[in-house]
Amino acid sequence: MDNNKITITINDRDYQVVAGQTIMQAADQCGYHIPRLCYHPKLSIEGACRVCIVQVEGAKNHVASCACPVADGMKIHTNTKELRQARRDIVELLLDNHPEDCHTCERDGNCELQRLAYSMGIRHRHFTGERKHYEKDLSGASVIRDPDKCILCGRCVRMCSEIQGVHCLTQAHRGFNTVVMPAYNLPFAETVCSGCGQCINVCPTASFVEKNHTQELFETLSDKSLVKVAQFAPSVRAAIGEAFGLAAGRNMEGELIAAMRKMGFDYVFDTQFAADLTIMEEGSEFLERIQSGGPLPLITSCSSAWMKYMEQFYPDLIDNISTAKSPMSMASALFKTYWAEKMDIAPKKILSVAAMCCTAKKYEAARPELDVNGMRATDIVVTTREMAWMIKSAGIDFVNIEPEKPDTPLGLSSGAGAIFGVTGGVMEAAVRTAYELYTGETLVDIEMAAIRGFQGIKEATVTIDGKDLRLVVAHGLGNAHQVMEMVREDPSRFHFVEIMGCPGGCIGGGGQPYATANSIPLDEEALRLRAQALYDLDRGKTIRRSHDNPDIQRLYKEFLGRPLSEKAHELLHTHYEAHLPKGIVSPNLKVV
Amino acid sequence: MATTETTAKTTSATAAERLAQLKTYIAETQENEHPDSFLIAVLHKAQELYGYLPVEVMDEVAEQMGIPTAHIWGVATFYHYFSLTPPGQHVISICLGTACYVRGAGQILQALKDELKIDVGEVTPDGMFSLQPARCLGACGLAPVVMIDDKIHGELTPKRMVQLINQYRKQAKK
Prior knowledge:
The structure holds two protein chains of two kinds. Chain A is built from 19 helices and 17 strands. Helix content of chain A is 34%, strand content 13%. Chain B contains six helices and four strands, in the order H-H-H-H-E-H-E-E-E-H. Chain B is elongated, with a radius of gyration of 18 Å. The A-B interface holds A 161, 167-174, 181-185, 582-590 and B 36, 55, 58-59, 62-63, 66-74, 77-78.
């Protein structure tokens, strides 16, 4: 291995580093954090912002450290007077074409550009030139686009194409007139945008933000005539602490329930309960298809960004998609039927609110086919970020609050419901239940290592009653695309497919807290810690299988009858249709 | 004095024929080693056939080449050569090269803008004229020149320019 090492000098000190990496990567390992903006380790190298320049002795110009490989004997300087001046000029020029509205901006305090300007020592604006002005695009159900705040780093464009394979965005026009926009400058609502919100996660400024529902929610929370009911996704509890300065991976379930009650919610239920219910329905659907011979593979449907992507790019596979609604929509359907009846509350008086790690859930909530008895099932969806802001804004001491338990009967969940938030979790939970429902035997080894972890596509085989069932799990829509191509090519290759639209699954959702000063968006270590919080939650539960959840059993006994009953179909299942918005590319979509 | 004859653009091909031609052209490019790299060539062909790049045609190119529409949009908007709006019935290219410029192309351009009430890169509301800049048409001896469709008109003055426009208008009324 040692012959792979070379000697470089950084700031007059010698270091042995592995050859083949960039100056930035080598410097990172030697303890020098070179400032950067357009760079992201998961994306291709753009080299556009020039913030990461260094001096290399013998080189005529400053070198972009993100793009230049180290060489033996290279003498690098990262912090000279000349460099500091040059970098500061570069950032000042970016600022010159950026609104001066930090104190009224959604990203105030969470903005990479703001942090960068501060760390460069910029305390005055030296340049005043022409400034761009464009209309905001408010048309999307999930994502809002504000080109005025864009600094053209291109991270959103690369995320949308390289990781998500959606290819909604491009840098159109040129020079000063360059704007990040969808094809034909169409409003977002008419594009192939899946609503996943990953552009928001990687945007260094507030050029992309979620459609904000916090004011609307504050207003309705003060309406005394309504019964305010909340639910929250598994991944919200695993990440919301980060927005309050806590380390990644703290499970804040109890604190969140307590805070939501303090905010004015009358009942706080748990989406994990509905995740158990999803498993009952989807697992039964899977067994039914195995027994009746299809259509297989069965493909999961809980991820709303994935559903929109599928309807646009893979409408030919609609018959393979599970008809089971997402946990959020199942829970909301029950609030306004089963629970309303039980509590003798008029369904119209119920305000159903979901706190989600997801921006696409805002779009899902508005899908008309999910209405229940002519009412919207989920009235308001807020992201983890929005919920964190609301808790702070309401003056609730979140970190020190006394944890509380969810309300019953739609609050108790099994460990299987908790791991829904991690890639592979739905599959694992479904296998736990399907195995036992089918064989009547107890599955001893319920943790499926093969489908855990962050590899893009994970395959496993499980033997149920002598039959080998081939499973595949993909997270991130680009990986989903690859798996769908495999399914198109050979439908018999898999029996069961789990797709999550976001990298890492819901824990890496588009609505999760922004990266802090010491982390990067979608940091793999942070994702791993969030995942661990959910796996620990599962391990800490006595009940780890959805069908063992006594409140699930009671729900079927009292109300639904059995999985896939007529009542279950009416309330817990939905259907999908092909949507072909302008700009679609159906054949051979390329994930570069 | 240069000729003042008009030659109306005759694109007699039917929509189906044009589409077939475009598809054939794309199919040929796809046999090459890096088919994606032919995008600009394909867009040139499309503009030659349609006079500009209609959205439906860019969709077609996307489908045929398997390249995302957003990417095609990025390329089509980057290069000034590509036009995203239908050209006027007559395309006026005004030479802004050095020779024409020192001989008064600036005043000719102003006269055109005033008369047509459009800016460079735009089309008159009646669809009759579109105005585009050009860098040297190779007729410096006649400077300042404009090219209307494929005819060169030289030694222009602002007054002559307006007269020329009126001739085209008169012809259209016939």
